[in-house]
Amino acid sequence: MAKTKPRIIKTDTEYIYIPGASRERFLTPPFPSIKYLATNNIMMAGLSTWTDGYRIDRYKIYHHLLLYTLGGAGSLKINDGKTVKLKKGDLFIAPYDSNYSYWTDSHWDAAWLHLSADSKWDTLFGTTAHVRKSAWGKEMDRVMQGYIEESDRRRVDSGAALHSYVDLILLYIQREIGGDDPLLADARRTLEGLWSTVQQDLKKTWSVDSLAQFAGMSRSCFHRTVVDLTGSSPMQVINTMRMERAGEMLLYTNYTLSMIAEEIGYETQFSFSKAFKRYSGKSPKEFREEMSK
């Protein structure tokens, strides 16, 4: 089988060399979606596997760039500075009018987005190109994969699904460059995993010490992190989760109060009823009767 020839793209602002073995999937047709991308200032986007020899040089480029390294490795040079290695989990953020080069001498899996300058993105991108750890790379990869798969289906109703994928892409861009810094995002993810575990076992006797141990933090660091990210203490979060679960069971099951108390970690019906009234302002019985009307 004949080898695919490399492609070379040259303009006044960029040089691109794409080896024949490289593969790129673009977020483009079917036609209902491409307009929605452009309407939201996403000029181009794609998932790529680049092979040995792939290279891009850009000079005073006219768009913003987000470049996620999903696997393999690449090299980057900004403004003729020192070469930086890009590894899985790294994110290169480049505002328009930047000068940079990136390439690989092995293989490199990447997700990338070109966003219009003179748009809502300008203030988020700032003026300096830089590399940092990605906070939302895995999610961006999944949603772009989903977009491409739906695009390939070319169903009559694909437009609605593709619009939803674009909304998620926009959300993750906003979170990535306009929200938490990476360290705070990591802490938020840790807590999300913890809360999911707690939700599955609300009858367990949770304590700040056991929660902190699960999260891999010291007791003081855990308490401070939870307060910073939720506005509540750890045990207040657990109490809210228990009361919300109790409210669901009061509304949607015929469980007795003693059964509900046991399910959410209270030793007696009385202690549960007292806690629920303190939380909701109504006794469990009053809550069930009022919400059932």
From TrEMBL:
One of its GO terms (molecular function) is DNA-binding transcription factor activity. Pfam families: AraC_binding (PF02311), HTH_18 (PF12833). Residues 192-290 form the HTH araC/xylS-type domain. Keywords: DNA-binding, Transcription, Transcription regulation. SMART domains: HTH_ARAC (SM00342). The keyword Metal-binding does not apply. The gene is rclR_2. This is RCS-specific HTH-type transcriptional activator RclR. InterPro entries: AraC-bd, Homeodomain-like_sf, HTH-like, HTH_AraC, Tscrpt_reg_AraC-type_HTH.
